[in-house]
Model the fold of this input.
Amino acid sequence: MKIRLDHVVKTFDTFRAVRDVSLDIESGELVALLGPSGSGKTTILRMVAGLEYSDGGHIYFGDQDATDIPVRERGVGFVFQHYALFPHMTVAENIAFGMKVSKVKRERAAIDARVSELLRLVRLEGLGDRFPAQISGGQRQRVALARALAVDPKVLLLDEPFGALDANVRKDLRRWLREIHEELGITTLFVTHDQEEALDLADRVVILKDGQIVQQGTPEEVCRNPQSAFVMKFLGDANVLSAEVRDGKAYASGASIEVDGLVDGKAELYARPSDLDWSEQGPGIPAVIARVLDRADGRRVIATAETGEHLEFDVAPERALKAGKGGFVTVRRAKVFAA
Amino acid sequence: MSANLTSGLGRRKSPRVGDGPLFRRALIGTVLVIGAFLILAPLIVIGFEAFKQGWKTYSATIANPDTRHAILLTVVTALIAVPVNTVFGVAAAWAITKFDFRGKRFLLVLIEIPFSVSPIVAGVAYLFVYGLQGIFGPYFDAHDIKILFALPGIILASMFVTAPFVARELIPLMQSQGRDLEEAATSLGASGWRTFFSVTLPNIKWALLYGVVLCNARVMGEFGAVSVVSGNIRGQTNTLPLHIELLYHDYQTAGAFASASILAIIAVFTIIAKVALERQGAGRTRKTVPRPALAANPAEKSS
Done:
């Protein structure tokens, strides 16, 4: 089912949570709404679900205007950050709930069969008789997903689905959700503030700031071609250097890089830690190493430039670098935005 | 850790202020003595006085038609006032915790008023509203409907006094539970009623029962408000507490104490029920829902 948001607006008291958002989600697509807290991503998701009314604009499911369809008739599956499992029901009863309250009457045997099918899908066979309090957080979130899928939703909506889980469990569930999505092909929209999660999981990432979409595209598009300093900073660690643009080149304390389409004047140069390197000889940004952080996958070096700016970059673990050593930071690639 | 704990429990002098043995014993002793004089002694006296003239007098007093009528009236009042207030309490708690609307804070304060206002004020206020000189009095009189000095007045006064009990128990619990469960149920296609009965109610049932028990105890024991509006007509509008006062003024000490013992027994059962319900996790002492799973599950962050 294709979803279309057409100039959607939402205001809470005086706070404008969502300002004029238009968005198309293709049928079968897995889309991430990514943004810092307060960017309106959860509000958008809840409006798609019908848990929140929009103050303006329309939401279409396929060709149908779904803006005024109440949540219980919208046919969406919603997964909450804190699972929202019914604590007084077993796992199987939780999953069966949607089928039991449905207007479409089903035989008890049919419900039982569907429940065990879903338990198999979320790999929780044999846990049907447990109560939510007796299973782990990751298992609970899988039950929540099975419960949402039980009503054959047209659209699956997930609100920070892995936010309450620890890093390892989160990674497993991410891969697993992707597999389920490929198997079922349900149009899926999920909200996260974790850029890694969004980039790992989604076909398309929609980045939000202050209730507006600032950029959207495939993970490749948004990573390789961020269109604003905000997106650049939000998607990962970035070094910021004040720079000056002259004749199609940006200059920042000893380093220079080619830029297109920027007028001459003050600018900011953004570089990822992996975009910088260390060299004993110039040219480059003269700097002194302040700290070396050893990590499982390499070495992170923090250097202080002559201008006082801190620069972080990654080097191969074999490189022998020590704090106090002087040298030059070289810029392999960078993004320049007008300041 | 455990070694530290055991040594902490030893006779070692504790550095905390007020932890000296003399102070501790004096404080506990004072509380026990005051408790004994203030609470325990009167209860013992009730039991003692009620049975002083023997079981026969006791049962005769209870069997007295006026006493029996007073008991009946009290039970009928409770049977009507408690369910109505339960529905009111659930509705108020639901409205306050699940909806956002103007005047929500005002409603919260309004619900609490009966706790802070003297019951007799409520009684007098009802006189002005429903009395013959009151606002609605002439209308009801013209239509031959008796509110004051009759059962409806007694029930209304009792309901005023006990209106906050159920709501006060439910609001903190339902606030801590949030709206997620109801939203989940609705998104799965459940109707409002279905959501209430299969999702909300099972999760608040102990707190609800707790509120009902407290509400019932107060309805049965209410004196001030009821005494103003009932008119104290023996055998007609006397509830048990009013009847006790009447017997006492008639110098029927044994009868007064016998009737009082019934209320005392109700109180004891209320306390037993209260403790039993608290074991089930009800009551305002526990503001959050116990979540044993968090401890049992190290893989989950408690964010």
Observations:
- Chain A touches chain B at residues 49-51, 71-74, 76-78, 80, 82, 84-88, 97-98, 101-103, 132-138, 147-148, 150-151, 163-166, 168-169 (CB under 8 Å).
- The domain at 3-231 of chain A is CATH 3.40.50.300 (Rossmann fold).
- The first strand of chain A starts at residue 3 and ends at 12.
